[in-house]
Design a protein that fits this description.
With 726 residues, this protein is α/β, with parallel strands linked by helices. The protein is built from 19 helices and 32 strands. The structure holds adenosine-5'-diphosphate (ADP) and zinc ion (ZN). Adenosine-5'-diphosphate (ADP) binds next to helix 7. Its EC number is 5.6.2.4.
Amino acid sequence: MSPESNIERVVPVMVPMPAERPYSYGVPVGMHIEPGSIVRVPLGPREVAGVVWDGEGELVPASKLRRISHVFDCPPLPAEMRKFIDWVANYTVSPPGMVARMALRAPAAFDPEPPVEGIRLTGLQPDRLTPARRRVLELAENGQAWTRSGLAHAAGVSSSVIDGLIEQGVFEHIDLPAQPVVAQPDPGFGRAQLTPEQEAVAARLREKVGQGGYSATLLDGVTGSGKTEVYFEAVAAALEQGRQVLILLPEIALTQAFLDRFHDRFGARPAEWHSDLAPRKREKVWRQVAEGQVRVVAGARSALFLPFSELGLIVVDEEHDPAYKQEDRVFYNARDMSVVRARIGNFPVILASATPSLESRVNAEQGRYERLVLPVRFAQVAMPDIRAIDMRRSPPQPGGFISPALLEAISQTLARKEQTLLFLNRRGYAPLTLCRVCGHRFQCENCSSWLVEHRFRKQLVCHHCGHHEPRPEACPECGTLDHLVPCGPGVERIAEEIDHHFPDARTIILSSDLIGGVKRLRLELEAIANGEADIVVGTQLVAKGHNFPGMTLVGIIDADLGLSNGDPRAAERTFQLLHQVTGRAGRTGLKSTGLIQTYQPEHPVMKALVSGDAEAFYAREVEERRRAGLPPFGRLASIIVSAGTKPEAEGYARELRRAAAHAPEIDVLGPAEAPMAMVAGRHRFRLLLHASRRADIQSYIRAWTARAPKPRGSVRVQIDIDPQSF
Ligand code: ADP
Ligand code: ZN
């Protein structure tokens, strides 16, 4: 039999590989295939799961044509998702196969789970009634179906007792669905009484959802103004229309309180989606989203690639958050791609933040987004009183990092039995260790970065590649004992200083390297919210969305930290982060204070934080970007060339540069060493593209890289459209 004789037609199949286009496969006669079908196909020596794509398969010589080996019993990937995948691939200059891969992240979910065998009473009586049998019958009396083992366990009998009853016909077998039915959120469940200002905004959002069609809204409201309460109304409206909803959150694994809050409002929890989820759980959610059983997902950025078939609203909470940017394989910003997804699906998207990104503000100013504002906190709760502490005038004690003014405020807060948050965006004890005798500095052998001392772990750790080594007693360079000194503070060192000043206070350190991982962090966050700590010393983890009712003082240890890296986005980012951190204070109406330690109190960021007036700050930032033609007024892309050796990386970066074509609205800058010149043993060079808004930067890059010599050896090229730092 010739191989083509039993093939009906040829279809394109997108495989989860760095493939630039779908591959052609034959459809065996009788196999039912449609665009979106999830199939298994042979690829090289293996088999992989792929998606039947749109259009015709490319012609392949019959002798080379391989066929689809299996169609999964699973809803096809919707047309909107296929279009979205193509769009993201095109925009990010990534192989579409690698984008499709993100939508196929739950392989075990492609086949339905087999039904579970259950048992149910028939009404027949057993021949003899033993005490064990009586317990079983009493439990099963209400007619409910049980699994064999579940009933045995509940009745405290061995399963042979159940088997005996089945044999006598007292129980019969039935099939139970493998998937428990998911509790459905009820739009009318716990509807809040909104304030008139909130209601006006909610009404507008409901109207937009009701009208249907694409729209983008920037929900701009101060911390505690009720943004969540208000966008829940849009969620309710979408649910009433029978649509699915996606809520994106930057740190969903740590904001479990959000799930409870959603439960209070809708009577059921949303499905959760993030990378810390157990594989079984992920597979369940993936399948239930595809089948439409799950109506609302609260997820991290990757939730954007779930196979929703009836998606009708996306909310991006904390839309300014850098965590929305993925910088691995496919470089994308989930905030921006949410807007694209909404446009493709023809439904509304809501971007919420107390400190919107400059891009979103400009989009609103230029009429692309509608801006809805909630200017005051709910229930007349006052914003914290923010003051700058000029560290030149109020210096800390020698060896310390906390100024007398901040220490005094902490002491008063303790006396009132309220909580203090001290914020420093630096893990560990000290960012640099040096030898006082010879000046030796401990540096990572794989990265261009210092090793950070972690005193609890008694290690020097690289925060870029994870390399760690024990902290020695003697200098490895000059051999002198006991003259290694820590330079600068990390959260551990601040906690030590606090212990010294307030030995009786209960102090908690909160940072992502806490032993015990996400679980432990969740417990600590809960403990803080319950008032089980007096002072919290934390990194940016504490900034995101938590509600600590007793927190009335926030101290920023080093407000200048993020400003010095030469990145044009540094001021915006610092403002957003510090505003969000100080916004943790006074959420429940107690008088609250934010104290900002800075050496440059006259800096526009500090002035904006202190005055609470962000408008002037944003206007100035926007103007600077406009003048420099930087995003969103111009376009940027960065191309990182990395390799195992510096000459390889630099050599290829130069070859690539030489292959660049001249284009009127695109400048190619570099190559230069990347801001992190070495990471995890790879040397990095960067080419930066700066273009006008009109320029088709993607087509330019595609043509360029196609023309350039292929990377050889260990050389790797990463393309980052709209890079975070520039
Ligand atoms: P944001 O998302 O803007 O920070 P939230 O929606 O979290 O604000 O609201 C802040 C606090 O005020 C929350 O505890 C919330 O439950 C409460 N709140 C806001 N609006 C209302 C309302 N209309 N009725 C009752 N509580 C509200
Ligand atoms: Zn390293």
